[in-house]
Design a protein that fits this description.
- Residues 76-254 form the IclR-ED domain.
- InterPro entries: GAF-like_dom_sf (IPR029016), HTH_MetabolicPath_Reg (IPR050707), Tscrpt_reg_IclR_C (IPR014757), Tscrpt_reg_IclR_N (IPR005471), WH-like_DNA-bd_sf (IPR036388), WH_DNA-bd_sf (IPR036390).
- Residues 15-75 form the HTH iclR-type domain.
- This is IclR family transcriptional regulator.
- One of its GO terms (molecular function) is DNA binding.
- Helix content is 38%, strand content 18%.
- It is an alpha+beta fold and 297 residues long.
- The protein folds into two domains: 17-80, Orthogonal Bundle (Arc Repressor Mutant, subunit A), CATH 1.10.10; 87-288, Beta-Lactamase (2-Layer Sandwich).
- The chain has a six-stranded antiparallel sheet, with helices on both faces. A two-stranded antiparallel sheet has the order 1-2.
- The chain is globular, with a radius of gyration of 22 Å.
């Protein structure tokens, strides 16, 4: 036979998991890129179900972040690009308000971001109490056991909270929330309290904290807190924390209506105008008693 047989077409094996993950990460062409699941599947040529499974894994490992409008690069991916995830900008914006909080109250002021299931401390300003508060810049703590963590988790979708924390959460003290269902109830109370989160002895015995999230149009970007001992009347300084968080958000997102309200449009029904400096005793008592017990939990 003079006619040669055509060689069979060779089909390439499906790409490895690493290759698929690389395809997905390469689909994000910049730090501000935002893609839906459909966008990712179309750009990578991966089946939608495969893309969704890998996206979930990348979110859990913080290579990507999942927002209400889609996916974006996460802190690990941004860090590889020589960026700090905006931490420097957040610290700069919050610095004068942290200083004012610390000087005004004499308590320890913290600035932190949510990093997976943990809070990551960006700044700490303290007076005489600083040495007794077991936190440090660059340190971490479980988000569910801290007021800072709960203040930020409260403005994520419940599914995001579940994905970040996994199927179980551990107790650090006898007062730590130990079940996801209980945590979701507490996050609901945080929203009812205009974003105020409290904890007393949940992270460390003898330590109490009040916090509020710094929020933009895409959700929480950081949190500010004041820390004292277990007997500190945190309700007296809570309005100052809310004001500091709101004003930091306005510096970070000038002209943004979402930053002015401190939340996303879908949460607008939970927000109210926040007084500039203080709330009346009656208002504070009403906020702290939204669970019917007036407790912190």
């Amino acid at each position: 036979m003079t006619e040669t047989m055509a060689a069979p077409v060779r089909r390439d094996a499906p790409p490895s998991m690493i290759e698929r993950m690389t395809l997905i990460l390469d689909a994000f062409n910049g730090p501000s890129a935002r893609l839906t699941l459909e966008d990712v599947a179309r750009r990578t040529g991966l089946p939608r179900s495969t893309a969704h499974r890998i996206l979930d894994q990348l979110v859990r490992q913080r290579w990507l972040a999942h927002h209400s409008f889609g996916y974006g690069l996460g802190q690990r991916a941004l860090g590889l690009g020589g960026q700090d995830g905006g931490h420097g900008k957040i610290r700069e914006a919050a610095a004068p308000y942290l200083h004012e909080l610390q000087v005004t109250t004499g308590l320890v002021a913290h600035l932190a971001v949510l990093d997976g299931a943990e809070v990551f401390y960006l700044d700490k300003l303290g007076g005489r109490l600083a040495a007794s508060v077991p936190s440090r810049v660059g340190g971490r703590a479980p988000a569910h056991s801290t007021a800072l963590g709960k203040a930020m988790l409260a403005w994520l979708e419940p599914e995001q909270v579940d994905a970040l924390l996994g199927t179980g959460i551990t107790r650090l003290t006898s007062r730590t929330i130990g079940e996801l269902g209980t945590l979701h109830q507490e996050l609901h109370r945080v929203r009812q309290r205009r974003g105020l989160a409290f904890e007393r002895g949940e992270s460390f015995p003898g330590i109490a904290c009040v916090a509020a999230a710094i929020r933009g149009a895409e959700g929480p970007v950081a949190g500010i807190s004041l820390v004292g001992d277990i007997h500190t009347p945190l309700e007296n300084v809570a309005p100052l924390v809310v004001t500091a968080a709101r004003e930091t958000a306005q510096v970070l997102f000038p002209g943004s209506a979402a930053a002015g309200r401190g939340g996303r449009t879908r949460r607008a029904h939970a927000d109210r105008p926040v007084p500039e400096h203080t709330w009346s005793a009656a208002t504070m008592n009403r906020l702290l008693a939204v669970d019917g017990r007036g407790d912190w939990m």
